[in-house]
């Protein structure tokens, strides 16, 4: 597979996407620990007998970035200027994660998109903006045709994201992904590039 341009940084208003880095370990772990009860119902888990073995955050980040350089995935963290202290010039804090995975080229040209956000920043339009930027990048810079999002029926916050952006509901997939210790049903939402006009960021405006 051809090497693609990576790293990539995207920005719209106060919301940013930048590559997940090995040096993000402490900040990422603190956010995950702080939000453990908020995120656990939606977290992917390994089914019995499929454990890959423990690995460090640093090795995970390096592996994901290596895959990104070969066009297989895009491991972003979500940043938010509104999370910085007033008057601070420090880097924008990490408030979540967005991953484009399963990137497929050839005659398919599609990918899956998943995300999470720190509970204290939920409801501020951060995730819809991040999803819009990532999807537009995939369509208009990577040349993908289809972006798909799989969401558990109970995850009302994530359902609001795709509804706000106009993703098309395509139906349910029973026991689709292993989440929170069990195989869980998911609702599938998708958009093709022909359906988005100038893009999803433009829709937000």
Number of strands: 8
Number of alpha- plus pi-helical segments: 6
Percent range for β-strand residues:
25-35%
Rg over alpha carbons: 17 Å
- Note poorly predicted spans: none
Coarse shape: globular
Mean pLDDT: 93
Q: Helical proportion?
A: 25-40%
Strand order of the largest sheet: 1-2-3-4-5-6-8-7
For the terminal residues, how far apart are their CA atoms?
36 Å
Which tags fit this structure?
single chain, 205 residues, alpha+beta, eight-stranded mixed β-sheet, 31% strand, globular, N-acetyltransferase, GNAT_dom, acyltransferase, transferase, Ribosomal-protein-alanine N-acetyltransferase
Task: Report what the structure shows.
The protein has an eight-stranded mixed β-sheet with strand order 1-2-3-4-5-6-8-7, sandwiched between helices. With 205 residues, the protein is α+β, with helices and mostly antiparallel strands. The chain has helices at residues 25-34, 36-39, 57-69, 126-140, 156-165, 200-204, and strands at residues 10-12, 15-19, 74-80, 94-104, 110-117, 146-151, 168-179, 182-192. The model has no long low-confidence stretch (mean pLDDT 93). It has six helices and eight strands. Helix 4 packs across helix 5.
Question: Can you summarize this structure?
Answer:
This is Ribosomal-protein-alanine N-acetyltransferase. By secondary structure, the protein is an alpha+beta fold.
Please describe the topology of this protein.
Blueprint: E1 10-12, E2 15-19, H1 25-34, H2 36-39, H3 57-69, E3 74-80, E4 94-104, E5 110-117, H4 126-140, E6 146-151, H5 156-165, E7 168-179, E8 182-192, H6 200-204
Parallel strand pairs: 5-6
Antiparallel strand pairs: 1-2, 2-3, 3-4, 4-5, 6-8, 7-8
Pfam families: Acetyltransf_3
InterPro entries: Acyl_CoA_acyltransferase, GNAT_dom, N-acetyltransferase
Protein name: Ribosomal-protein-alanine N-acetyltransferase
């Amino acid at each position: 597979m051809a090497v693609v341009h990576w790293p990539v940084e995207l920005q719209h208003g106060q919301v940013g996407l930048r590559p997940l880095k090995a040096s993000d370990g402490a900040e990422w772990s603190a956010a995950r620990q702080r939000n453990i009860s908020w995120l656990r119902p939606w977290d992917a888990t390994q089914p019995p007998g499929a454990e890959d073995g423990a690995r460090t955050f640093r090795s995970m980040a390096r592996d994901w970035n290596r895959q990104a350089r070969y066009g297989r995935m895009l491991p972003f963290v979500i940043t938010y200027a509104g999370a910085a202290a007033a008057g601070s010039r420090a880097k924008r804090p990490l408030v979540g994660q967005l991953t484009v995975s399963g990137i497929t080229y050839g005659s398919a040209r599609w990918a899956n998109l998943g995300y999470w956000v720190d509970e204290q920043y939920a409801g501020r339009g951060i995730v819809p903006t991040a999803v819009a930027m990532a999807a537009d990048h995939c369509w208009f810079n990577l040349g993908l045709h289809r972006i798909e999002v799989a969401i558990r029926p109970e995850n009302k916050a994530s359902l609001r994201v795709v509804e706000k952006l106009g993703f098309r509901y395509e139906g349910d997939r029973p026991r689709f992904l292993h989440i929170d210790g069990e195989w869980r049903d998911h609702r599938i939402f998708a958009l093709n590039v022909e359906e988005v006009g100038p893009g999803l960021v433009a829709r937000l405006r």
